[in-house]
Amino acid sequence: MREMAKGANVVLATLSEDAGTGSLQVGLSWSSEQGDGDADVSVLLLGGEGKVRTDADFFFYNNAVAADGSVSLLGKTPTDSGSEDRISIDLQAMAPDVARIVVAASRYEGARFGELNGLRLTVADRTGEGILGFSIDDAGPESAFVFGEFYRRDGEWKFRAVGQGYETGLAGLATDFGIDVDDAAEADSDVHADGDEGDVPAVVAAAPQPDDGVSTGTATGPSAIIPAQVAPAQASVHVTAQVAVQGQGETPVLAPPVRRPRTVKKKITLPKVARKSLAENDSWHAARLFPVPSLKNDRERETRATSVLLSVMAQVPEFGRRLMAGFGAPVGRMETFTEVSLPHGDAPKRPDGIIRVERAGKLWTALVETKTNGNPLKPQQVQDYMDIAARRGYEAVITLCNDVALEGRPLVDVKVDGRRKHKVVLRHLSWAEVTHQAQLLIRHEGVGNAAHAWLLQELLHYLQHENSGCHGFQNMGPAWVPVRNGIDDETLCQGDPRAVDVVESWERLVRQVCLRLGGELGQKVLPVQRVRRTADPQGRRGALADLLCDEGRLHAELRIEGAPGVLALAADLRTGRLRTSIDIPAPATGYPLTWAKRLVRQLDEAPADLHIQTLVPEGATGPRGTLERLRPEPADLLPKGDTEITGFRLSLFKSMGNTRGHAESSFIRSVDDCVDRFCANVVAALDRTAPARRPQRGEAAGVDAGVGATAG
Questions:
Q1: Residue 615: helix, strand or coil by DSSP?
Q2: CA distance linking residue 360 with residue 92, whole number of Å
Q3: 37 touches 24 (CB < 8 A)
Q4: Rounded distance, CA 230 to CA 333, Å?
């Protein structure tokens, strides 16, 4: 991997055979020792004059995919030291009049990039092999940052490491690249008149400026990233006026304001409230497109699951592209196949499925190997498919099973023949990820038409059926019972490799909980890692395993977008109890007694056994009690004297399941139930009056109309 210095540039074709013309995956990453650091990525396509060509050239969390497939924001993926935002860029699909592709990120609510550690950009080719990296170590008060840019020069694509920021936030960055920013608080009436979910607010491209060498605060060259003197980050972007240039040297005339059409048609999602059933009684079962009760064995489950998934991927473009974009697949016509026989040695091999995507006369092909019901992948089987793919010129082998992959811990080890010129990438999907993407589309983001929504609904029903075998991670592994017994009788010692196995299983379970919650809530839910990005993942897991041996506890933290704090989850294997908790900061204004009364009032419908503890400066312990006891006397939460209140900790306890599998009495099921109960009964109550956060879809506050006002 080529490490870039700030301001350096490189021809992509010199780094990888097809990097200059093919599909690239860009990753933006950072970490926070406080665990709450986050930012939003954005991509701008610029014409020859350094400005966006139209409002459709700005891609952010509410406008994530280009119609031609040239840009796709793939969202956040957990990593060993935090999370990484990934972007798919297809240079071959890029319009010929796009001269530059700017990759940026922005923070909100007054947060600055100097508060984050390990700011880094990486670029990988279609095989997933990293070709360049750029680390930023001089970030300070900036709230928006340009990490790097791709640009055309003499018929070739090049990359420049930029690493410059804006104290004026996303509004300043947007203005620099030709997006009108108006400091009026109101939003465009045409954008928010009906509040339809799925509508993307209008972004206005500024009229091209003549290149007369006069600086107007706008960058005109790839390296001239200058913060514009514009309204603060909470400015509103909407249509104010059109600029009409009468002639050379004449003063521009402001034309009357115009109403902008919506840039994306309304998407279709499932109704929040199901229509009343016409069945006479509950014993009647609705007819299903993909029936599951007849499945009798693992082979039938694998065959049915593969066929169901691949057929829906081919028929619902949004869904197929969402799953395949991260694997280097182009946007094009997709066809899927099952039970295909391919020659290999003495006997042909039959992969569970094949995915083919055609674009501009070129084919992208992936072999699919599926496992259900917790069955493990077979290394030799995957190795055979890798060899077949390499010989036939296919691009990828995709494994799909219940397990969740971790960085640095592949589910199967395969050997790659370095003498072969053609590279094949091995990628993994878990059934939990498939379910997560289906939930996001049909419940929150929407798809193109009602038939597609119905197909995804049927797929989701199939995946979640108890007989499908597609339930995601469902076994803590063979080390679970010995480790639990070793903790119980105090015979488990530090350095025991079985403790590391349990820590890895716990990490997989936590990631699956994040996927499930994120799909249900329509919000980003990510595990928190309070470590620097340079920390060794295996060393970190070893330290956690030693802590498990000493304390008998497993810990995890989840960051839920929009929640007032980080959700902490702890499993105490000595006492057999699970604890979920959240720390909420004390309000900036008001009186302590008012805070206590308001908090108890917010939790009116929370469980009576909810524990509330007042947080005071380090070294002291604040008052605590159950909600049932505090409801008549909220003043019992106040510490004695003039002790400062820094916040409140809310906790729920639950008995822990013991078995390693996915039965009703299992540890995995008890963790799911524990987190669900806490989110539904505690976090949801707090979210109604949470502190200021990034505005959500349809809200008119904040940076509006394509520059961060509405979240997707």
A1: strand
A2: 9
A3: no
A4: 44
For 169, the token pair is 């936030």
CB 582 within 8 A of CB 568: yes
Q: Which residue reads 């947007």 in tokens?
A: 174
Determine how many CB atoms are found less than 10 A away from the CB of residue 695. 19
Q: CA of 19: how far to CAs of 23, 131, 333, in Å? A: 7, 9, 22
Where residue 471 falls (left for φ over 0; alpha for ψ -120 to 50; beta otherwise) is alpha
> What stretch of H or E contains 460?
helix 450-464
Other Cβ atoms less than 10 A from the Cβ of 631: the count is 14
Q: Compute the half-sphere exposure of residue 70: CA atoms within 13 Å on the CB side of its CA.
A: 21
Q: In degrees to the nearest 10, what's the CA dihedral of 191, 195, 198, 199? A: -10
Token readout for 536 is 């060794």
C-alpha distances (whole Å) from 373 to each of 122, 403, 512 are 36, 10, 16
Count the Cβ atoms, other than its own, within 10 Å of residue 307.
Answer: 18
Per residue in 230-258, pLDDT tens?
233 333 333 333 333 333 344 333 333 33
Q: Which two tokens stand for residue 144?
A: 């928006």
Helix 480-488 crosses helix 537-551 at what angle (to 10 degrees)?
A: 40
The CA distance from 181 to 237, in Å, is: 5
Helix (H, G, I), strand (E, B) or coil at 513: helix
Residue 621: count other Cβ atoms within 10 Å of its Cβ. 10
Q: How far is CA 458 from the centre of its chain?
A: 24
**CA end-to-end distance (rounded Å), the chain:** 33
For β-strands 396-401 and 362-370, DSSP reports them as parallel
- CA nearest neighbour of 74 among 83, 64, 66: 64
Angle at CA 52, nearest 5°, toward 46 and 53? 100
Contact criterion met (CB below 8 Å) for 366 and 327: yes
DSSP single-letter state for residue 495: T
Measured distance CA(41)–CA(84) in Å, rounded: 10
Alpha-carbon distance 466 to 461, whole Å?
10
pLDDT digits (tens, 9 = 90+) for 530-556: 766 556 778 888 889 999 999 999 999
Nearest-angstrom CA–CA distance, 537 and 456: 36
Residues 567 and 659: beta-carbon distance below 8 Å: no
Distance CA 355, CA 314 (A): 9
pLDDT tier, 266 (very low <50, low <70, confident <90, very high otherwise)? low
Q: Which residues pair with 429 in a beta bridge?
A: 400
612: nearest Cα among 653, 571, 570, 566: 653
pTM above 0.90, yes or no: no
Q: How far apart are CA 180 and CA 60, in angstroms?
A: 16
SS (H, E, C) 565-614: CCEEEEEECCCCEEEEEEEEECCCCCCHHHHHHHHHHHCCCCCCCCEEEE
